[in-house]
Specification:
Blueprint lengths: L8 E3 L5 E3 L5 E3 L1 E3 H14 L25 H18 L4 E10 L6 E9 L7 E8 L5
Antiparallel strand pairs: 1-4, 2-3, 5-6, 6-7
Length: 137
């Protein structure tokens, strides 16, 4: 967090506990770029309406689980994820969101690549998030 204190610190997700040298237990935290990457994963994996107190939070990515691996479906998924990230993660400069069919037809997998920066003068960080579809390849 030394480089970017404005990004904040929060609990790691999933929640983890660790012990310090004194043996005291503490909740593991994420800060800086790690916290932003964690937030991006949470936004992508949270379905709209899933959080009772914030039903508008999340994305429609899970709605696409019965979709296909066709280019139009991948483009729609990438567009919807980019919109959600721009709305819910103001700390990130989202450079690119791309969804492409991955593996063979039996995998029914789409890999979503999210490139983001937390500082306009730094190189982007890439996250690759696999989605496994239930529909036909």
């Amino acid at each position: 967090m030394r480089d970017h204190p404005h990004l904040g610190t929060g609990w790691q997700f999933p929640v983890r506990w660790h012990r310090d040298a004194d043996g005291a237990g503490h909740v593991a935290t994420a800060d800086g770029e790690q916290a932003v990457a964690q937030s991006i994963r949470l936004i992508v994996r949270t379905a709209l309406g899933e959080r009772v107190m914030r039903p508008e939070f999340g994305s429609t990515a899970e709605d696409q689980v019965f979709g296909t691996r066709e280019a139009a479906s991948c483009h729609r998924l990438a567009h919807e994820l980019r919109t959600a990230l721009l709305r819910f993660e103001p700390r990130a400069i989202v450079d690119r969101v791309e969804a492409v069919a991955a593996g063979d037809d039996q995998d029914n997998r789409v890999d979503v690549t999210v490139e983001f920066r937390i500082d306009p003068h730094r190189r982007p960080t890439s996250l690759v998030l696999p989605f496994y579809l239930e529909g036909n390849a």
